[in-house]
Amino acid sequence: MAGPISFLGVPLKRPKVAFFEFTACEGCQLQILNNEHTLIGFLNLVEIVNFREAMTERSDDYEIAFVEGSISRSDEVERLLEIRRNARILIAFGSCACFGGVNQLKNRFADLDWVTKEVYGDFPVETDEVHPIADYVAVDLNIYGCPVKKEEVEQIVTNLVVGKSVKIPDFPVCMECKAKENICLFELGEPCLGPVTRAGCDAWCPSNRRGCWGCRGPAGVVNMDQLEEIFNNYGFKNVELIDRLECFGGFTDFTSKLRTKAACEQRKTEGRS
Amino acid sequence: MKLSCNIDIRHLTRVEGHGNIRIKISDGKVVEAKWEVVETPRFFEAMLVGKHWENAPYICGRICGICSIGHTLASIRAIENAFQIQPTVQTARLRLLLKHMETLQSHILHLYFLAAPDFLGTGSVLPLINSHPDVIQRALRLKMIANDACDIIGGRRIHPIRTVVGGFTMLPQKKELDGIRQRLAAAAPDLVASAELFKSFATPSFVRETEFVSLKGENDYPFIGGEMISSDGVRHKEADYRKMTNEYCVKGSTSKWSKLSRKSFAVGALARMNNNFGMLHSAARNVASELAFAPVCHNPFMCNVAQLVECVHVVYDSISLIDELLALPLQEDRQTVSPRKGCGVGAIEVPRGILYHYYEFNAKGTLVKADCVIPTSQNHANIHHDIEEMAMQYSQTNVDDRDIELLAQMLVRSYDPCISCSVH
Ligand code: SF4
Ligand code: SF4
To answer: Disulfide check for B214: which of B33, B162, B271, B287 has CB 3.0–4.6 Å away?
Structure first.
C-alpha cells in the first residue's frame, strides 16, 4: 500500500481499521470492495488490518472497527465484547448491526423452537433471539442501510480520518425524494415509508420506483399517526404498514403499538358481528 | 512418507462466511480430515412463513450479499410459477442480462481478489495494488462494467430494487444499455489478458472423481429454469428439485448437506461446464482449450478456470442480449399479479451453482411454507470429501505441512463458497 498521505500539505495519519461480521449476508462488507473508480483511493485512506472476507492477515491492533451483522448466538457476544475492548471507535455497519436487520423477523415468533424445527427439524442448532449490537456494547457511530451506501461510507470515513465531525441526516427520505423530483409512489399506487425513514441514501428505492421499506430506521422526528393516515387515505391497510415497518427492525416500538391497535380493532369488529 | 501434520484453520479467510479446516495425520495415517461450517444460521425459511408473497424476493435477496440478484430472481421465478405468470420476452432478456452481470462481477471478484493472491504469493489483494497495478486495474475495470450494468438494470448492485414479480418497476434507457454494450465490447483485451494471467498459474494436479449437477441447456448455455441433470445421468424437472438435492443435516455443520448418486456431488461453474460444454460461446470454448480444460474435468482447482471461461461467455452473450433488447421497442410491460393457492419452484444457476427457491401459498397469497436450497450447501459434502482425499494422498508423500495447509485452503477457495448463504 501507499506511504503517508497528506491533505493540503498537512500530513494525515491513516487509522488502522478492522471489519467483522456476525449474523449477516456480508453485503455491507462487499460494498467496501465496490465503487471501483474510488476503491484504491478509499483503501489508501486507511490501513486495513483485519478483513477476513478479503485478506488472510489478521491483527487485533486497530482503532476503528466496522461491525456488520446482528447478534444471535452466545459465541457472537464473546467476540463482540472483545472487539469493543480493542477498538477506539466501534461502528455499527448496516441495518443488521443497527437494528437486527431482516434477521430479526424471526423474533416475531414467540416460540424459537418452532423456528429451529421449521428449518432443521429435530437436528440441534443453537440460536437466540436476534439483537442489534448496541444491546451488548456501546456503539460510537451507526452507518445505516441494507446495504450501506458506499458513497456515504466514503464520506464518513474521510471525515473520521481528517477529524471532521460526522453528520448523518435527521430528516426523512421524502425530502431527498422530492429534491429528485420523483413522482410520489403513493400516487402510483405503491406504499412507501419515505415520510418516516432516515435520509442519507438519496432516496435510493423511491428513485427506482419502489416504495421505501425503512432499512435506515426512523428519522430524527417521526409522526407515525400521520403515516398511518397517509397509508389509510391511499387505501392501504395497517397490516401492510406493519409488514413494511417490521422488515428491518428499525421501527420495533412503533410496530408493536400498531399491532396491539390492529388486534383491538379486530376484536371490536368480531364483537360487532 | 509424511509422518505427521496437524492443521487447524479456524475461520478460513478470503471466502464468504465462517468455515474451518481440520487435517491431522499421524504416522502416515489420516486421523482426521474435515470441513466444518460454523456460521450462525438466520432462518429465512421460517421468517417467510405468514408473510405476503410480495415480501419473498425482497427479503430473500438478503440471503446473500454476493448473489442477491440470483436469489431475488429465483424467488421471483418461484412465485411466478406458483401464480402461473409467464414473463414477457423483454423481461426475460433483461433478467438474463442482469444475471450475467452478476455472474461477471462475482467471478471477477473471486478470481482476482480471493483466488489470485494464493498464486501470486500474497495474503490478500492489497499488496498487489502496488506490485501488480495492471492486474488490479484490469480487475477493477471488468468488475465496474458488471456492477454499473447491475445498477442500470436492477437499480442497485446489491439487493436489487427494480426486479419484481411480473417484470421491472422501471426500465433502463436504451442509451444506457448501449453504453454497457460498448464497454463490454471493449473488454475483449481484458478477458484475453485475464486468461493469460491464469494460464501462468500452476493449477494443482489434484483429482477426485465426483458427480456434477447443473441445469441442462436445450439450445443455450443454461442460467434460468429448465431441467436439471447430473453427470451420472440423473435428470429431473424443476418442480422435482428435492429429488436432486436430498438435503440432510450433519454434525459439525450449521449448513445442510446434499447427495445424489454418490456420497457427494458438485455444483458451480465446473459442473455447468462439464454438463453443457458444447453450448458455450465459441470465444469461451477457445479460452477453455487454451487453459487445458476438457470436459468432464474432475480437478476441483479447475473451478477457477471454469469461472474465467464463463466470464468470456457471459460477456459475449450479454452483447447479443443487448443487441436484441436494442431492437425491441422497450416498453413498460410489468404484469399485474393475482395470487392463488399453490406452490412453485424457481431453479437458477447463480455464480456458485444451482439455486432453488420453493414456496407454498394460501389463496390470499400468504406464504405457508418456504424452502431454499443453496449452491454452497450442495457443495459442502463434496468439499469435505475432497479434503479427506487430499489428506490421504498427501499422507503418502513428503509434502511440507505449510504446503498442505495452503493447498487445503486453495481447494476450498476454488469452490468460491458462499457460507453465510449456505446457512441462510
Ligand atoms: S444490512 Fe443488509 S446488506 Fe448489510 S449485512 Fe445485513 S442483510 Fe446484508
Ligand atoms: S415516494 Fe416515498 S419517499 Fe418519495 S415522496 Fe413519496 S412517500 Fe416520500
So the answer is: B271
